[in-house]
């Protein structure tokens, strides 16, 4: 499942780095420095100022004056999906990668090493979670097992089955022609746009390469989207689940594996249920009840346990138990920066 080597790829291989920018003035320069230090030099850096109000847009303009590879797009606020889509449309590179403006690259030669696999539709790599008091590396991919598989759909199935599938759009390089050819833009109006986008992407992927590079530094902050739970998040997952469940039932490509992944996401919404305001928990529970049929696809230990709890105690009690478990785990192991 490897792509071509750098020697096989045409000269002048170019990368487009798309960085959405929205009210991140304290972090933007750190992020951009990590890109400019890359040993892979043939890149364009597209900063998409998505209607910032804290001076981030002006800072992006000043930073663009320091390096000709930096371009800035200013637009009215469209959300993360809209900013990334603007970057996709503006990109001219052979490959494209997304970097959130409060995160950073950790390896100066990381992109250069990934580009040795140019030719594959997507090239996967890893992240490091950065908390206030610690850093946490994610598990390695089983590169040998992945390389022995016959196609990308078998890779997807293995990643889901081994809990190694990561839906983040920031953890892969993707051929721009592949994105455009399949119209793989981010859905607007979602707070969990990466989930929908990545599942749609994997429906089309033909070739995939993998490297165990701890390249992406993901900072956990209290104010970040991923650290918050609102009914809007549940509404986004309602759209995602409602889109995919009929397709899984009808036997779409890798439907069983997609269902298993969605079952895991159902459990994650159960973990987060306790973070909803007390007045919104009933609606959160109604969401869990509506989509509990996803647990029929459960493959992971956590999803199978959740399915057993639902059968024994019902959805409400399961949500309470999952919430208490996650609250305890978070208290013991997590600190935001």
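Q: What amino acid sequence fits the structure above?
A:
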């Amino acid at each position: 499942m490897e792509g071509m080597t750098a020697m096989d790829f045409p000269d002048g291989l170019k990368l487009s780095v798309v960085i959405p920018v929205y009210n991140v003035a304290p972090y933007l320069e750190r992020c951009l420095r990590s890109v400019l230090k890359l040993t892979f030099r043939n890149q364009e850096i597209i900063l998409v100022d998505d209607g910032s109000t804290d001076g981030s847009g002006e800072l992006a303009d000043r930073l663009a004056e320091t390096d000709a590879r930096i371009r800035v797009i200013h637009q009215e606020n469209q959300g993360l999906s809209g900013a990334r889509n603007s970057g996709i449309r503006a990109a001219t590179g052979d490959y494209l990668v997304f970097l959130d403006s409060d995160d950073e690259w950790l390896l100066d030669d990381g992109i250069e090493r990934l580009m040795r696999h140019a030719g594959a539709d997507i090239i996967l790599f890893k992240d490091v979670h950065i908390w206030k008091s610690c850093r946490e590396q994610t598990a390695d991919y089983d590169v040998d097992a992945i390389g022995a598989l016959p196609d990308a759909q078998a890779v997807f199935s293995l990643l889901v089955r081994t809990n190694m599938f990561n839906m983040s759009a920031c953890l892969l390089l993707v051929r721009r022609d592949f994105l455009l050819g399949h119209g793989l833009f981010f859905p607007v109006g979602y707070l969990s746009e990466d989930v929908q986008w990545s599942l749609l992407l994997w429906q089309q992927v033909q070739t995939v390469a993998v490297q165990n590079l701890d390249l992406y530094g993901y900072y956990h902050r209290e104010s970040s989207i991923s650290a918050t739970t609102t009914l809007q998040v549940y509404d986004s997952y309602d759209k995602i689940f409602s889109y995919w469940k009929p397709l899984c039932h009808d036997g779409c490509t890798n439907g069983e594996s997609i269902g298993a992944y969605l079952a895991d996401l159902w459990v994650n919404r159960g973990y987060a249920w306790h973070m909803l305001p007390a007045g919104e928990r009933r609606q959160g529970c109604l969401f869990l009840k509506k989509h509990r049929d996803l647990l029929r696809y459960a493959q992971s230990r956590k999803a199978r346990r959740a399915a057993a709890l639902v059968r024994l105690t019902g959805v409400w009690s399961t949500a309470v138990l999952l919430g208490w478990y996650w609250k305890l785990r978070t208290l013991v192991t997590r600190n935001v920066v």
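Q: And what stands out in the fold?
A: Residues 1-10 have pLDDT under 50 and may be disordered.
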